Structure formats: structure tokens, C-alpha cells
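Example 3.2
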Amino acid sequence: MKIKVLPLLASIAAIALTTAPMAVRAQPPFMEELNLTAEQKAQLEQIRESTDSQIEQILSPEQQQQFQTIRTERQRVRGAREALNLSDEQRDQMREIHQSAREQMQNVLTEEQRQQMREAMQSRRGEGRFRGRNQPR
């Protein structure tokens, strides 16, 4: 099965960025390599803020506290999801939110930047950072 790199990369970027603390949003290294314009950076930040807000709306108050702790401590996304103990409905909603964020992020980037993202993803796959779900660890 051929993995669609751009959606996977955008998903990882969206998840990574939504789990970062609000006050300090460190960009993943590949995002810094894209030479984003100020307008693109602002648009991506708006997407991240919207994504955070949407995620918090589907969480219970207890889960919201855990989510804030996870973001503050910058825990890994997989462990964070497990710690939140999401219901099936919440997982589905989370998936939809992230899919929407990925699409919005892709629309902000130029074709050249999307190509750079694909290339960055491919080069980092060799480093073991971004493995597909069905690939061995």
C-alpha cells in the first residue's frame, strides 16, 4: 500500500502543533524550512488556534485539564490520546477536526512548499521520526 505522504505529514504537523503550549509554539523543523510568509504564519496560527478550540469543545472538563497538562509538558501525541481516554465518538470527532486542519494547512501552502514538505517527510522517514501505522517500529 502506498502511503500518501502529504496528508500524513500535514496530520503530524497539525497534531504536533496543537499539542504545543499556546504561549510558545515551536514550529517543527520542516515547517521552518518552508520559508513561510508572515501571512502564511498568521494563517497557520489561526488554524492551530481554531483546532485547539474545537478539540477542547469535545472534551469533558477533566479531559480539558489533562489536555492542557499534556500540551504544557509536550507529551507525545500517541500517549496523550491514551491518557485522555477518549470515547469512540470523541476519537471520530478528533479525526474530523485534524482532517479539516490538514486540509486548511495544505491550502495555505504553495505547491512548491507542499513539495518541500513531501521531500522533508521522505528524508525524515529514514530517521524513524514519521512512521506509518502499519510499518514496524
